[in-house]
Every structure is written in C-alpha cells, then in structure tokens.
Amino acid sequence: MMKHPARATKATLRIVLTAFLAAVIALGCLPNMAEAQERPRRNLFDMLFGTREPDYPDQPMEQPPPRRKVQPRKRPTPPPRQPVAQPETPPPAEKLSDAKTILVVGDFLASGLATGLEDAFSTSPGVVVQSRGNVASGLVRQDYYNWPQQLPGMIDQLKPAMVVVMIGANDRQQMIGDGLNEKYGTDPWFLAYEERVQQFAKLVTSRHIPLLWVGLPSFGSDQLTASAVKLNQIYQSQTTSVGGEFIDIWDGFTDQNGEFIVTGSDINGQQVRLRTADGVNLTAAGKRKVAFYLEKSARRILGDQASPDITRLDTNNPLPAQQANLPGTEPEKITRTQPMSLSDPDLDGGSQLLGSNPAPAATTSSPRDLLVEKGLMDPAPVGRVDDYRLPGSVAR
User: What is the 3 state secondary structure string of 129-182?
Assistant: First the structure.
C-alpha cells in the first residue's frame, strides 16, 4: 500500500528541521560548556552574597596590601628585688671553763638531737653539749654495741650535769645476747627489753644525775610507727619508775589524726619540712624542734647556768671603771605590816568582829513585808514603765 505524497513530504521536512535544530543547539552550547568547565563552580552562598573571585579567570586578582610589621612592645624591666632581711643570728657565746655539760647518748636520732641542743644553747656560755651517739646502736644488739658497758666510762670522763637519751629506732629486730634469741614482737622479747631499758636508766639515776629520756617520733612506715608507740610506753614506764623524766615529742611530728607528717610547724610556728624523704631521719628544723621539747626541762635543771647573759667576775675580769665608781645605794627601807587575824579585831582599831551584835530591829514595815503580809504596794513613780495611771490622775 503506498503512502500519500503530501504526508511523506511533511515527515521528511520534520526530520530535517529536527536535525538542523539539534546541530544549532549543539554548536551554540559548546562555548558555554567549555566556559563552565573553566569557571569555578558557584554555590548557594556565592549566588546570595556574590563571589569573592573575579568573573574572568584570565584577569589577575588584586593582591591585598602588605601587612605592616608591628614591633612588639618592650616591657619595662622590673626593678631588682631587694633581699628580705633575715633576723640576725647571735654569734655563739664563748663557753666558760666551769660550764655544765649535757651528755646526749643513743642512736642516729640522738646525734640529731645533740645538734638541735647545740643550737638551743649556743648563746649560753654556761652550757656545753657533748654528743656520744652511735648511729646504728640500740638496746637489742649488745653484741654490736654494748651501751651498759660504754655509758659508765662516758659519765666518769665528762661528769655531766644531766644525761639525755634518745634510742630505739634500730631496735625492731631479733634480740641476741645474754642467752636470748627472741624474735621481735613476742612477749619474752618485750619483757627482756623492759629490763634492758630499766638497767640503762639506772646507770644514770643511781649516780644522782638527772635523766631525760626522749621518746620516738612517728615514722613514714606504718610498721615502724606501730613499734614506736609500744616502745614509747616502755620508755615512759621504766624511766619514771627509777626517777627519770620522759619527754614526749609525738604530737610535734603528727597531724590532728595522729598520722605521720613530713611538713609541719617549726619552733617559730612556720610551716617547714621536718622529715627527710625516707620518712625516718630529721631535717635541721626537725632536730631543732626535738630539742625544743626538752629545752624547758633542761633549763629548769641547769638553773642560772643556762642563762644567755651569765658572766663571771674575777681578778682577770674586773668591773669597768664607770661601774666601780658608782656611789653606793642605801638599802630601801621596807615597812612591814603585821597580818591581821580574823580572831583579833584590835588590829584594825575595833573591839568586836563584824556580825557579833544582832542587827537592829526594824521599827517600820519594809515594802517586802507590806507586799507579802498585807498585799500592799506603793504606786510606781510617775513615768516609770509600770506606771499605768492616766495622765492628770492623782495617785491614791
């Protein structure tokens, strides 16, 4: 069947026009597509507020002006700090020939205590501190160092006015000697230790020499601290039983809960380091603090000899001329009054003691009697708070 010629012509023209339009569109879009590829892609922000780049890529961007370098400001140099004036330490006094001796014996803690005592009595010419401590000694290992044998010779040689003992930090070990071989912590160990402490104390008090036994402080180790508590109880009981004096320093090296402290108050109330890093030894401030605890008892025993301004007058040290020519002063006349006795009224000019005569009888009734017996009460004065009368009324 053959198609109509007119319809064939229209279809052919339609096909040709479609192809022509497609070619024109293709040729017209090619430059735009290439330009779109060369230009950067715009986002929504650029469309709303404009692009920050030039519309034509071949046009060079305008470079911002160079930033001016700002020189940093020079801070003013602070003035040099003036050193804080430290209180002047008085020079040590020259000791007198008849100065009294404090003998300090014990272990390494006793040696530190002696250092603190030397500082405490450095300005006292009448006191000399002699240290005879043995670092690793104690009362347990007498095979290493026998204090009962060594102490009498020290006393005979130095003739001390008092003996200070601080020992026991090395005694937490097995006891050997005198037929004993006991492990620390057993009942036989503590019984034998009490006997040795008492024997040691008697070596001093039997010679009528004052004895000051200083207790142990707390330690960084809980086991050493627990042992120190038990040993201090022995030192206190045995020392006081033979006439000695026990010096308790526990509170000076613990906090409010009784726990070990490294830093605490010194003798001036300042916070300083009292113990070393090992939790056993004492710093210089700690040694001085231990000496502070027994300083009061030591000065009481030594008396005027411990005074820092003690002097001796002899032929080689006469009085200065201005003092020697001072006129003599007459002794002040003191008028003494005889004390008054409660049973002797004549001393004050009277003849009777107070209260010896009955009180005179009252002729009129007192306000109390009127109120209690008759229920009568005088009206309150005008203007007083309990005056309830109306203004202008007459009191009845």
Answer: EEECCCCCCCCCECCCCCHHHHHHHHHHHHCCCEEEEECCCCCCCCEEECCEEE
Q: What is the CA radius of gyration of the chain?
A: 52
Decide if 163 is inside a domain.
yes
DSSP run (H or E) holding 7: helix 5-38
Please state, in angstroms and as integers, the Cα–Cα distance from residue 130 to each residue in 17, 85, 99, 114, 127, following that order.
131, 33, 12, 7, 10
Q: Which is more confident, 372 or 314?
A: 372
Exposure string over 130-165, b if 16+ CB within 10 A, otherwise e: bbbbbeebbbbbbeebebeeebeebbeeeebbbbbb
Q: What is the pTM of this model?
A: 0.59
Q: Looking at residue 268, what is its pLDDT?
A: 92
Domain containing residue 211? 100-306
**pLDDT at position 314, please?**
46
User: Is residue 274 in some structural domain?
Assistant: yes
pLDDT at 324: 44
Determine contact, residues 149/200, Cβ cutoff 8 Å.
Answer: no
Q: Give the pLDDT of residue 215.
A: 97
Residues 6+ apart with CB under 8 A from 5: none
Residue 156 belongs to a domain: yes
Domain assignment of residue 378, yes or no? no
- For 77-103, write each residue's pLDDT tens digit: 777 766 655 556 667 778 898 899 999
